[in-house]
Amino acid sequence: MKQxxxxxxxxxxxxxxxxxxxxxxxxxETNTQNEFxxxxxxxxxxxxxxxxxxxxxxxxxxxxxxxxxxxLDAGFSIFxxxxxxxxxxxxxxxxxxxxxxTFQATNNxxxxxxxFISQKxxxxxxxxxxxxxxEVQCSNQDRMVISYTISGDMINVTxxxxxxxxxxxxxxxxxxxxxxxxxxGDLCQYYNIKSQNALTSTYxxxxxxxxxxxxxxxxxxxALQVVIPRVEVENNSSGMxxxxxxxxVLDYPTFCKLNNQSEVLNLKKxxxxxxxGRSVAGSDYANYDAVVPDLRGVFLRxxxxxxxxxAPSINPQQADPDPDVKGxxxxxxxxxxxxxQTHTHNFNTGGWYNNGNKGSGIGYVGVNWDQGRxxxxxxxxxxxxxxxxxxxxxxxxxxxxx
Length: 402
Description:
22% of the residues lie in helices and 19% in strands. It has eight helices and 14 strands. Strands 2-10-9-5-7 form a five-stranded antiparallel sheet, with no helix packed on it. A four-stranded antiparallel sheet has the order 3-4-8-6, with helices on one face. Strands 12-14-13 form a three-stranded antiparallel sheet, with helices on one face.
């Protein structure tokens, strides 16, 4: 098992306790934007504009949306990483509408909202650097900061109080662990915390396939929360090489869920991507091609040549006869349109005539004058818009990382 590297610390402090004057905040914002660009290939500002151009219901149902674009994918990555499962639908919708209203009014995101929507984008290294920066440069600003470290199933959660004066105490309220059991430590509900001091407790993860959520309430402060992503469990596909294409009857959300993968592609960590022509720059597959093949609505066909030394000759009856537009043999990922092989039909005719009693233009074809009438038009109830064999619809996915 391998732990996902993405940090997911959710800040719910007030604007007063999280002052925008601290230069560390700008550094965190810049680094997080850079990491978002690396992971999605899209600009963070553009993605947030797309994100707030739609309503909550649109993003909630985006997985089944038929007209996806790379811009919408980037907006969805913000939605799916920000609105964690520990929130109720009503809480998610209210939070979204509040954020959208602020963004549309100011064309910007408040510091609180920014930290909320970037909670699973900033890497652990970036976040820990921010913590150290706050300790050195912004320790005179009144704030509560929560962080965590992981060792196997054990999670150490630390709450540190940066207060404006050293002579202050406040009380820890309730602590609500989800999918975690308290083991030891002094970060406990109803304990006091002194200014400039920290409290730490250890929790044990219960279910590796679910996120851990630990919410800490502090008197006179809004709640603080850590969300530790589920452990990425290696599955039986781990031995498949990058570039392998598999068929599945599972749609993308279900495929991701059953294979322990987030729906939002982390282009450095996610194992599989849908074969829909998207960019996967930053993945292992991108060392060959930055774009995965688009296999929607098509069958797969083997090339005539694997480019393997001493390969036996291909059977002419199964060889692909079509060259590319330059006359060269077909290459991998090249598209081939549907077709019917050139052929002829032979028949004997007894003649043609017009039946004056029933109107002109009625043709009769046959081996003699008395044989039945034939007509032109569709070939019965099997006529469709394309020529195709019997088939069953599936999804194609491609391995993009080792």
